Amino acid sequence: MNYIYSDYVQKHNDILSLRDLAPGTVSNYISYLNEFLSWVAKELPGKDLSGLTFEEIRSYIRYLKDIRHLNNRTINVHIAQLRDFFLYVLHRDWDRYQVPYLRFDQYLPAVPTRQEVDAIINSISNLKHRAEIAVLYSSGLRVSELCRLRCGDITASKNCIYVSRSKNRSDRYAVLSSKALSLLNSYIRRDYCNASKDSWLFPGQKDGSHICTQTVYNILQKQLAVLGWQEKGYNCHSLRHSFGLHLYEAGVDLITIKEAMGHKSLSSTEIYLSLGIGNGRSVKSPYDM
Known about the structure:
This protein is 54% helix and 3% strand. It is mainly α.
């Protein structure tokens, strides 16, 4: 923490917590605020924060871009944090024309094929970890959603998983794969027979805790290394993209995929249009018609 401006940091933290933002968002915003305040202390010593000008804010943005070489997406998060700091802590108006968001390039993600996903899952010897990766892909879950599942969230009779408080702060049902259910049943019978409905589906090492997202990331990265696929650019979110793309390739419509993945906007689902074309999904050039 920057002790010169520690009162501002504490006030900002209190406001972010009061707004009930995700813990990760609060942590990132406070970290970015501390970076900004450290820059102010160095470049504008003794500066009263209430007197900050937009020209000075732009100088900081240029510092992030030209000196620290941050990508534009990350810089936009810094700008969003500064906007909130101005509005909620300094009680000053924010002019988006004075400090505009930066344009950024959008790249198509690396997405494993169905054969590659099967190879990854089948290469995992630990039954619990194999079940985790299988559910992650087969239900299209975010890693954070997978980690917070409880045993009672699994409804085998209806082939669905109850997902509470997803990224867009809403509940939903995700599809439950029969193959993933078989793995789950084997894992629970062998390693977790004393589990109750309220138990975490995938408990962590500490009593009463669930598995953490970093553990799931490590599991996948280890298997990618085993398969010699470190350079393919796959990560846990790639499995979620595989879920969406493979449904689209199978002919499922985008609205259904949107609901299955818990996207707030259809624009998030439309990426599978481009990915599908790249995989030859039912598109024929008019030159060949």
